[in-house]
Amino acid sequence: MAIAFIKTNYCYISSLILNQSINTSSTMAMCSSFCPQIPNHLRSRPISLSPTKPLFSVSVKAFSSQTSNATAKADEIPARVGFLGLGIMGSPMAQNLIKAGCDVTVWNRTKRKCDPLISLGAKYKSSPEEVAASCDVTFAMLADPESAVDVACGKQGAANGMSPGKGYVDISTVDGVTSKLISGHIKAAGALFLEAPVSGSKKPAEDGQLIFLTAGDKTLFEMSGPLLDIMGKSKFFLGDVGNGAAMKLVVNMIMGSMMASFSEGLLLSEKVGLDPSVLVEVVAQGAISAPMFSMKGPSMVQSIYPTAFPLKHQQKDLRLALGLAETVSQPTPIAAAANELYKVAKSHGLSDQDFSAVIEALKIKLQPSAKE
Ligand SMILES: NC(=O)C1=CN([C@@H]2O[C@H](COP(=O)(O)OP(=O)(O)OC[C@H]3O[C@@H](n4cnc5c(N)ncnc54)[C@H](OP(=O)(O)O)[C@@H]3O)[C@@H](O)[C@H]2O)C=CC1
Ligand SMILES: O=CCCC(=O)O
Fold first, then answer.
1. Interface ipTM > 0.85
2. How confident is the model over 80-118, as pLDDT tens digits?
3. In angstroms, what is the span from residue 252 Cα to ligand 2's centroid?
4. Among 195, 339, 345, 347, which is 20 to 30 Å from 99 by CA?
5. How far apart are the first and last CA of the chain?
6. Last residue of a domain, one of 224, 241, 258
7. CATH number of the domain within which 159 lies
């Protein structure tokens, strides 16, 4: 017996389906007639459930991207979902899964970050291995390649708790080589692997509005789709492992260069006697407008950098993107220059500030050389 649960802006429909496999199209079609707010991409989304051994329980949740996801329903059958890594991004993502009614088990290196989620109903296990062993699908949202490998493949790592029928979804921003290494360990245990780095920062994570850039096992993409839909507004499947990582690095390479260029513009405008706040307004109305400039510009003008995306992670992404470019001999001089600026910012203690603090690196007076 399976329950399909469809949520939209205005209505909930629980549909009891007495077969082992869900005919999603017909369920969606039925729900669409009651709930015209269901977006097209959710109406037709394929959900293939194994007739013999579902990867996880068959609660299907769809929602309008305009809708808050923070609604729990006691009559849902929750999936057993693991979540490893509860930093700026992982905490709100796990929170949205819990609030949507999923059965979530968490782990974080620093245990106290688990406490707010435990208060919301999450279970706790003391190692990634135990989380993976007790869950059907486990998500990981870790700082960098080193921590992603350690948590997945190290002693008491998630791979040790994996077995056939389970899935591992790595959302961390890493390079393709790292992702393939992790995939190898997970698949050696007979489980499925999906890389799924996200575009979108702290606020989209809180609002369930992330963009998933996935690659790997298509079956796991389809099975974890309802969970990705709780945490995000869209998802791309890009083929083989490495393609999701590459797409994410290209996006963040552009972003890092944009922020560095914007920083130069703000400071130049001020030096020539213009009001940088007016520059922010002018940029917002023209062809180079970007939500990032409008969101971060006003606080940058005041030299305030509340952390949404830590500067150290932006520099890590530029470093990894430059490595990717190197593998195909693609010149990336703008990104290389931007990377140097983020390195200077790091060396001045700005690693944990928001990446918009890179502007501070342009305010630092260079020391005159001994000869001058
Ligand atoms: N912030 C953002 O806007 C976005 C970030 N990303 C990417 O998502 C990932 C996470 O980012 P974010 O949440 O901001 O980062 P945070 O720095 O806030 O969190 C990093 C997480 O990784 C854990 N961690 C770090 N090192 C280790 C280790 N050696 N072993 C085990 N766990 C470790 C931390 O544990 P502990 O709490 O113990 O330190 C924490 O849970 C990064 O890859 C980042 O590039 C992607 C999109 C947006
Ligand atoms: O990796 C971080 C991305 C931040 C964003 O997309 O706003």
1. yes
2. 999 999 999 999 999 999 999 999 999 999 999 999 999
3. 7
4. 195
5. 80
6. 241
7. 3.40.50.720
